[in-house]
Design a protein that fits this description.
six-stranded parallel β-sheet; alpha/beta; Class_I_gatase-like; ten-stranded antiparallel β-sheet; binds CIS-heme D hydroxychlorin gamma-spirolactone; about 25% helix
């Protein structure tokens, strides 16, 4: 055991705390046969490449970990007790009057157990119900004190503990991870000046401009109230009815129909604070800023057909991916960047920086990297941490302040309010995962489930009996930026909020041709599910204002003529900025490392054991996850006579669970696999989903049997289909392709 913990970077902090019992990877996750060509028994060993885990936090660094120790419970070697700590003799039978008689009312042990169970569930989040979270830290690059006094940014190298929850928006708590949806990206910083929550999404803009419309938006997208369908999907009438009548949503709709809404992994998506925020320094000078999280692994997405199939093959696909990566020591990392600009600059922009349906192109205001975030610890308990964590946009610290974005202003109310019903009262801040590291001192008292025991008789201020304590912090406390406002009180919107299309067009013209085609396909899919023809037409009429080719492409799929453009909300001609490279996913290829990407090596009797071994080792060495898939689990005979161990079966682990496939050499293996329809379907899906494929020697025949074309439609070679005579001809290239963005050269329309 000691040797294992010393050699395996398997969440070392957990193992240190609890020993081996703490290691609970999902069965089979990252567990590999010792040496695939030499053993038939799988050793449950976690392997991470030397390249992964570089972001490993030094032991004892995560202060939040220590703080939570107080409430962590480890039952190893302990007797079972009631909630009052009374040892329980038997946990099998209730107390009866005679073995066949009724249960005694006095069975307090049974009653306590059932009562607790009956109340186990709490309301799920009204949006973002489905999510996964992890602990980690933010490390600041250099002091930003000229811009802000915010604690995480005041020293070079300073580490601030964080807890981050990723989520889908529309689906219920048990819905699938790969739905087409916006993803939540909420970060709680446990700073030494109190908690700061940056509650963002993986898309830099939002559907609506004013919080007044949020309940309408959510009611429209959630399952329709009369029959509770569809689950985790915006492809239905009420959603498109609403957004088609809200032209301000057009920009967001393009993002939502783009590949960003079907990420490959939580680890491979950006995060955005969305709103304009303020940074304030200790001289009370303020600038505006937008927050950007950029994943070191790059921005990568699924393709739609794959996302749909994953919903069935593994509804927990993103949850599992995040969990396994962290357990394996392949800690996900993001760089935090800021776009900083002054109020004077903002006034020059053709759009309003208070409008959350607008972004600021990076060509206008560059993103400056200021620090990095590493997620290095899975929660110990899903409910206590991931479910009970409460993010609130109102949780800010000195140095950060709000802007007047009317969506943000409404959020300041909503998040705190929602926790009261979700977490059962006003003391949710005392739950361990929500409690700040900085001690809390105030005169708020009582309420449901109060944990702290305030001492003394004074719970008011001013007081003399407690020497005036707790006393006001004055300049050391939070002070709102004293913005001067001389305006009328009105219900209305600023003029530039009427610009509904310029940035939708900017996004469209910044996409690659493949990305544009995916957007058209997504609109076609969603609107085909819409039953009301007038709604479909109204959506396309919005798109006419964005781009005629886009609108025509969608209209063609719906079998309708191109409608008239929707009327504009303003006669002002809002300029469309030139294409912005950072709006295309292709701008973020990542660092090329495999970072937990999964490669299927299909094996059957007669397989060339040496090439399996070489391939396996090469993928592992780059931080990837190779898996031997056979026609069934268990031993497979290599050509040399050695036994391999198939870790999964093609029957139960379909293509969508893998990022790439390799077919090792072997005449017999090709024959064996060619007789399996599931194998051929596996290969077709790998091909269809534009994944790197490697076929060696005799296995090349399998590609032909599966009907996979050797070249692209224009006759040119397919850059990600490697059919070679010997492994060494393609090994390097294959491994590199697995760590690279997908090439969509194979895609045809129709698919
Ligand atoms: Fe929200 C949850 C992100 C607009 C009201 N929101 C929630 C979560 C994220 C966001 C990531 C989940 C946090 C978690 O993991 O627990 N929301 C956004 C972004 C928005 C946005 C990026 C626009 C820029 N939200 C928004 C508005 C309102 C809300 C305008 C209401 C006025 N959001 C909520 C909520 C939720 C929530 C109802 C549900 C559960 C929760 O807060 O804790 O209060």
């Amino acid at each position: 055991t000691d040797q294992l913990s010393a050699s395996i970077p398997h969440n070392p902090s957990k193992a240190e705390e609890y020993g081996e019992a703490a290691r609970c990877p999902y069965t089979g996750a990252f567990s590999l046969p010792d040496s695939p060509a030499a053993t038939s028994s799988t050793v449950n060993e976690t392997v991470a490449s030397p390249k992964t885990g570089e972001g490993k936090a030094p032991a004892g660094e995560n202060r939040m970990k220590g703080d939570l120790d107080r409430v962590r419970v480890d039952s190893a070697g302990q007797m079972l007790t009631t909630n009052q700590g009374v040892n329980v003799a038997s946990n099998q039978d209730s107390l009866k009057i005679g073995l066949r008689g009724p249960t005694a009312m006095e069975d307090f042990i049974l009653r306590e157990k059932l009562t607790h169970f009956d109340h186990e569930r709490i309301p799920e989040r009204v949006v973002h119900a489905r999510g996964s979270a992890a602990h980690g830290y933010f490390e600041n690059y250099k002091p930003l004190t000229d811009l802000t006094k915010a604690a995480p940014f005041n020293e070079a190298g300073k580490q601030t503990p964080v807890f981050v929850r990723f989520s889908t928006v529309a689906g219920e708590r048990g819905s699938m991870d790969t739905a087409r949806d916006v993803r939540g990206f909420a970060v709680k910083f446990y700073t030494d000046a109190g908690n700061w929550d940056l509650v963002g999404n993986n898309i830099p803009v939002f559907f609506i401009q004013d919080a007044m419309k949020f309940p309408d938006l959510v009611h429209a997208v959630k399952p329709e109230p009369h029959f509770g369908m569809p689950q985790a999907s915006s492809a239905h009438d009420t959603y498109w009815d609403f957004v088609s009548l809200m032209p301000e949503s057009t920009h967001m709709l393009l993002w939502q129909m783009s590949d960003r809404a079907i990420p490959r992994s939580y680890r491979m998506m950006q995060g955005f604070g969305v709103h304009t925020f303020r940074l304030v320094n200790d001289k009370n000078e303020s600038v505006f800023c937008k927050f950007h999280w950029t994943p070191v692994a790059g921005v990568h997405s699924l393709v739609w057909d794959e996302a749909v199939k994953l919903g069935g093959a593994d509804p927990d696909f993103h949850r599992r991916d995040l969990w396994e990566a962290i357990e394996a020591g392949a800690y996900p990392e993001w760089e935090l960047g800021v776009q900083v600009f002054t109020e004077a600059q903002a006034e020059e922009f053709s759009f309003d920086v208070l409008d959350p349906t607008k972004l600021i192109p990076e060509e206008m205001v560059p993103v400056t990297p200021i620090g990095k975030m590493v997620l290095n610890r899975n929660p110990d308990n899903f409910f206590a941490e991931t479910e009970q964590v409460a993010f609130c946009t109102a949780h800010i610290i000195p140095g950060i302040d709000f802007s007047n974005d009317p969506l943000l202003q409404g959020r300041i109310h909503s998040y705190l309010d929602t926790q009261i019903s979700r977490l059962g009262g006003v003391n949710f801040h005392e739950l361990p995962i929500n409690a700040p590291l900085k001690p809390v001192h105030n005169n708020q008292r009582d309420g449901m489930h109060r944990q702290s025991i305030p001492r003394g008789r004074v719970a008011y201020e001013p007081n003399s009996l407690a020497g005036g304590c707790p006393f006001q912090a004055g300049m050391q406390g939070f002070t709102s930026f004293p913005e001067t406002i001389t305006e009328d009180k009105v219900r209305g919107r600023p003029e530039k909020f009427a610009d509904h299309y310029s940035q939708a067009r900017l996004f469209w013209i910044s996409q690659s041709p493949a990305e544009q085609q995916h957007i058209i396909n997504a609109f076609r899919f969603e609107l085909t599910r819409v039953q009301t023809q007038a709604i479909r037409e109204r959506v396309v009429s919005l798109l006419v204002n964005v781009d005629e080719e886009l609108a025509a492409g969608v209209a063609a799929g719906l079998g309708i003529a191109l409608p008239e453009a929707a009327p504009l909300a303003s006669s002002t001609d809002f300029p469309v900025p030139p294409p912005s490279t950072a709006l295309s996913e292709q701008h973020f290829p990542g660092n090329g490392m495999l970072l937990g990407r999964r490669v299927a090596i299909l094996v059957a009797d007669g397989v060339d054991g040496d090439s399996v071994q070489t391939l396996y080792d090469a993928i592992l060495a780059e931080g990837g996850v190779p898996r031997l898939l056979g026609l069934q689990l268990g031993p497979v005979k290599a050509d040399s006579g050695a036994a391999l161990d198939a870790e999964g079966s093609i029957e139960t682990m379909p293509s969508v669970l893998f990022d790439a496939v390799a077919l090792p050499d072997g005449k017999l293996v090709a024959e064996n696999l060619a007789a399996s329809g599931q194998t051929l379907e596996f290969l077709r899906d790998q091909y269809r989903h534009c994944k790197p494929m490697l076929a060696i020697g005799a296995s090349q025949q399998l590609l032909q049997t599966a009907g996979i074309p050797e070249t692209l439609v224009d006759g040119s070679p397919d850059p990600t289909l490697l059919a070679v005579n010997a492994l060494e001809d393609a090994l390097q290239n294959f491994v590199q392709l697995v760590g690279s963005p997908r090439s969509f050269a194979r895609e045809t329309d129709p698919p």
